[in-house]
Amino acid sequence: MRIRSSWAVLVAVLAGFLWGTGSSRAEEVAATKPGSGANAEFVGASTCLGCHADKEGFKKNLHSRSFLNAKNIEFEKSCETCHGPGSLHAAAGGDKSNPDFLTIRNPSKLKAADGNASCMQCHESGHRMHWKGSTHEMKNVSCQSCHSMHDEKANGGKAPLLAKASPAETCYQCHAEKKAQIRKSGHMPLVEGKMGCTGCHNPHGSPAEKLLAKNNVMETCFQCHQDKRGPFLWDHAPAREGGCAVCHDPHGSHNEKMLVTRAPMLCQRCHVGGRHPATAYGFSAADRVSNRLAYKGCVNCHFQVHGSNHPSGKYLNR
Amino acid sequence: MNFYRMLNIAAAALLFAAPAFAEVRQGLDFKYQHRNQKTVNGEPSAIPTEYGEIPNGLILEKYKIDFEAEKYFIDAEVTNLGLNNQNARVEGGDPGKLMWKAGWDKMPHLFSNEARTLYKDEGNGRLTISDTLQSFNQPLTAAGYNDSIKIQLAAAQPVPLGFEVETSNMDMHYRLAPDLTLSFGGWRQTKQGTKPQPASFGFSNAVEVAAPIDWATNEAFFDMELAKKEYQLAFSYRMSDFRNNIPSLTWDNPRRLVDQAASSSGYSTGDQSASGQLANAPSNTAHVFKVEGGFALPMNSRFSFEGGYQQWKAFNPMLAYTVNTSIRPGGVAGANNPVPPFDASRRENLPDPNVDTNIESFSYLGKLAMRPAESIRVALTHDFYLHENKNKQYTMPGWGMFDQLWHQEQVQTPREGFSDAKTKLAVDYDINSWLSGDVGVMRTYKKQTREINRINEYEGSLGFTIRPSRDFFVNVSGLHQERRGNGMDFQHYVRTVSAATGRSYFSDAPGMRRPDVADRNRNQGRVQVQWNHGEVQASVSARMTQDIYRQGKGSTTGDDPVVHPGLMGLITDQTQAYGADVSVPLFGGVSADLFYEYDFSRRHLRSSQTACAGSTAGTSVGLGLPGEPACGAGTLAPTVMTQDPRTRWETLMRDHSHVAGIALNWLPLAKLKTLIGYEMVSTRQNLDPINAGEFASTAADPYVSFPTSRRFQQTARARAEYRFTDSLAMAANYQYDKFDATDFAYGEVPLRDLGNASIFLGANPIRNWYSHTVSLATNYRF
Questions:
Q1: Distance between start and end Cα atoms, chain A
Q2: Alpha helices of B93-141 — where are they, by DSSP H?
Q3: What is the mean pLDDT of residues B79-88?
Q4: Tell me: the pLDDT tens digits for A175-199?
Q5: CA distance B325 to chain A (A)
Q6: Do residue A173 and residue B530 have CB atoms under 8 angstroms apart?
Q7: Looking at the complex, does the CB of residue B201 fall below 8 Å from at least one CB of chain A?
Q8: Are B448 and A174 within 8 A, CB to CB?
């Protein structure tokens, strides 16, 4: 019944959106798109650089140098490939009050979807194959939010032309809480620069949840932790079925091994009965004196928590 | 050594080729550093970093050389030369036509520099203790052994605890035709060293050894892509081969020199076998095939798809049930110690000489993304993932428990697998020029081999994106998710049937709230704000998740009204995270960078119940039911098997974390940059009982909260950099680091005495320490 109600609410909300004030969108597009530049002609990069001398570095960056080989576009035509024909804009001579000045197409000033369309003319392949309909695309994230086509900050002008000094710094622009979380005592070597967010995530869209680079959490972790891949004679069911994130928080944790909480309570989230006393270990002075509490807790004995290939490994202790 | 030879050859080749390039740029960063680190509270030593060293002396931080020609470029870079976290990479090519890169990276993973062990590594996974020590300990009483082992551990040998990861990679990207590209390459990673490995002999004898690691992974890939403007099609193949050169670990028991099968009373004390053996991670191979693509459709629409197949295989010799040669017919039998009908230490008595395991995965995705009007975007996605376990399945007659005794019970090896099928519809609508809204609905259907084997998950989400100007952005979203299973599949649970009562006692309690499968309602909210105006940059993000677990359908009791009647396990789980990141100019050339995060989690955990035992330990006499002895009466005490509601306990686990940093930059002169900064990471964990049950908590020994566990790391730094010329800059740095921690698991819990001594490596990861580091750094570009 409750599920049915939730669906009804969602359908109502969706209908509300469709019925909403969409007409103003057309005015917005007219204002931001270079529609009035229909009569403009191509003038060439030399003309552009005459005023935009600060973009001189574009000649040497990866983006510009790829044009000829990848798309058979001479450098002279490179600026207007993305910005549209610039004769009217150039003729305006920097006079911002002149309507022709606005006829140039500046993807970073357009709505995200319109700006991204420029990039996707060439880049709808490789890691961006599933960009359309992805979380970031649907949330109006623009390519320019992460990439700088002219003045890249990372990697000396080579791929991937990031707007910030590293892939992680780029992601922290919106995911501020992750910047701090990764500094906790149990963390992966992001702070040390040995890996980046894109080691696990594909921000351009992927078939998996959380924009994971692989099909699921388990496969993502096995990229580096092949020793956990098994397959095992005796699996630990949640490690196989639920994925590594049932017990680990890959973005950083107070606990060793980035565990979401400490043993034995970590294990007692599921194993609260069973052959061991269902004791609240440690809450009384008497049972605080227990190996089950110290150091790795349950893992002191059940150390093959990821699975065992030993014929006596049923309880993951061999 | 080989690496340095290769580096020299590469460097010589690059310099020789330099005249062919129009432009050569080089950069050199080096520093002289001195670090003075001390421990506090009398701790012996500590490791300040898990993933790299901070050495004294002259350090070459970075050398970079770039060659540029009209069409080609080569960039090479070496960092931390000679240190254990050094890295080298070179890349080059003709952009858009041929790009290639190669790299080599070294990274330590340090656990401790103060570990001590009784064991000697004889190679090939064999850790030994001297016969003299074993024979000395063997006749000792439990109390005598406990005293003895303390003395022996104090005199134990230091052992390095950590391993080194070396990674080499090379790959190439070549455009065969304007629309056709090929990519191929390889990757090799080795991990060698030691890791702390629990290696117990029984419930009360926790033993930890420095287990040797010698792993190597080789991977290769080949991708081919046809990318037209209207459609794209890509094929990829990846192979990953993991080799564990130490397939098993065998270690001596410090308590015994000669094997003996356990009596019933020896089950938990673990002093019967002369050694133990475990199977290390199996060598395995994975093959991954993937086809993906997409094509444009009318009305600004696009369909993209992906299909994949994977196979993971392991094939390893199966170890014997036990290395205890006394576990054979004619051995000592006891109540908990049935004698196997064969010699369990001989491999010919195994069901198969090899472990033959195999998992195959199939996946596909179809996504229709549409923009039927300027202001609306729609995405309909369906994906499916099948993780099919095709392991060879064995029926085992029983197993060796901790190499101490034989547990006779016919059991079949499991085949854990699952499938997920997700269908999602998302709609984003631009309401006006500055406001967008999005709604999404998703249904996930999961099938699994055990526990709750069929699950439906429904999710609805709603969000708004507010972008009044290109400098300001707000994203607010929330989702509600309901997960419902088909009920408890209790017949798959491992159980023991009581001879006295005929009732089932479960090893994994039915009804438990396994976080990944139990019925659950989830509420999640998210806010992201970003403001960039001139030199001011500010972002705030927050995420809140509340999980409420539910009873679900089906019997949690196996139709026995007194067995496990209540919810148990994880009841609720709440997490919140708030982060902020601000860069702002202040005055007179001073600017500030700040970040802060607070996160909080709260987990409510409830136990099942505990049955009662008589005065003789381990003798279950009743459940406190009508007609049976009352639990808690006379000599009866709560014990294993968890049935009496009066022994149920509940607790709250709370984690609080604060992470903050501030840096002030001051540019008093055009050529002088100064910085002072402070960062801290403070985390705190509390465990408080809500309801402790009426048996274990007494007036004399009441339940109390755990001691709070804390980590507190602080860093203060100051830097002044002066640029003498365009090519030369020098900087003076000072850094103060301090780490303080308390944790009951490492320091405040006295281990149980009387023969239950635990042998840990002494590798406490939370030693308190502080350090002062000064350095003079030079940056030279030429």
A1: 48
A2: 131-137
A3: 92
A4: 888 888 898 888 999 988 899 999 9
A5: 15
A6: yes
A7: no
A8: no
B299 in Cβ contact with B238 (< 8 Å): no
Average pLDDT, chain B: 83
By Cβ distance, the residue of B66, B367, B681 closest to A156 is B66
Residues in Cβ contact with B369 at an 8 Å cutoff, skipping those fewer than 6 apart: A132, A133, A137, B301, B302, B303, B304, B377, B378, B379
Chain A environment of B318 (Cβ under 8 Å):
309, 311
Question: If you average pLDDT over residues B733-755, what whole number do you get?
Answer: 71
Measured from the Cβ of residue A284, the count of other Cβ atoms closer than 10 Å reads: 20
The closest alpha carbon to B744, from B687, B683, B681, belongs to: B687
The partner residues of B278 in beta bridges, in order of sequence, read B249
B268 to each of A43, B321, B382, B678, how far by Cα in Å?
Answer: 86, 19, 51, 50
Question: Mapped to the 3 state alphabet, what secondary structure does B304-362 carry?
Answer: EEEEEEEEEEEEEECCCCCCCCCCCCCCCCECCECCCCCCCCCHHHCCCCEEEEEEEEE
In chain B, which among 111-170 make CB contacts under 8 A with chain A? none
Residue B477 and residue B210: Cα distance in Å, rounded?
48
DSSP state of B632: T
> Across the interface, do A179 and B689 touch by the CB < 8 Å criterion?
no
- Tens of pLDDT, residue by residue over B409-442, are 888 898 888 999 999 999 999 898 889 999 999 9
Partner residue facing A181 (CB), from B417, B437, B597: B597
- Per the CB < 8 A criterion, the answer to whether B164 and B106 are in contact is yes
Q: Which residue does chain B place closest to A169, by CA atoms?
A: B581
Q: Does A12 touch chain B (CB under 8 A)?
A: no
Q: What is the pLDDT of residues B12-68, one digit of tens each?
A: 666 666 656 668 889 999 999 999 888 776 665 666 678 887 789 999 999 999 988
Q: pLDDT band at B697, cuts 50/70/90?
A: low
Per-residue pLDDT, B203: 67
Contact B235, B224 (CB under 8 A): yes
Helix (H) or strand (E) holding B597: strand B590-606
Query: Residue B172: its chain A contacts at CB < 8 A?
Result: none
Interchain proximity B369–A133, CB inside 8 Å: yes
Mind listing the pLDDT tens digit for each residue in B606-631? Answer: 776 554 444 333 334 334 344 444 44
CB < 8 Å to B767, chain A: none
- Decide: helix, strand or coil at residue A272: coil
Interface check for B387 against chain A (CB to CB < 8 A): the answer is yes
Instruction: Classify burial at B380, counting beta carbons within 10 Å of its beta carbon; exposed 0-12, middle 13-18, buried 19 or more.
Output: middle
How far is B45 from chain A, CA to nearest CA, in Å? 17
- B476-502: average pLDDT: 71
Q: In chain A, where are the structural domains located?
A: 40-105, 127-213, 224-300
pLDDT (tens digit per residue) in B240-278 = 999 999 999 999 998 889 988 776 665 556 788 899 999
Q: What is the dihedral of CA A272, A277, A280, A286, to 10 degrees?
A: -170
Q: What angle do CA B550, A248, B163 make, to 5 degrees?
A: 160
How far A101 CA sits from the closest chain B CA (Å)? 19
Backbone torsions φ then ψ of B443, nearest 5 degrees: -125, 130
Contacting residues of B for A275, CB less than 8 Å apart: 507, 640-641
What's the pLDDT score for residue B619? 38
From the CA of A145, how many Å to the nearest CA of chain B? 10
pLDDT of residue B184: 97
pLDDT digits (tens, 9 = 90+) for B506-518: 555 545 667 888 8
Q: Does B250 touch chain A (CB under 8 A)?
A: no
Over 60: is that where the pLDDT of B695 sits? no
Report residue A238: phi and psi, to 5°: -65, -30
Chain B interface, mutation test: which of A116, A265, A301, A308, most B Cβ atoms within 10 Å? A301
Cα separation, B464 vs B274, in Å, equals: 66
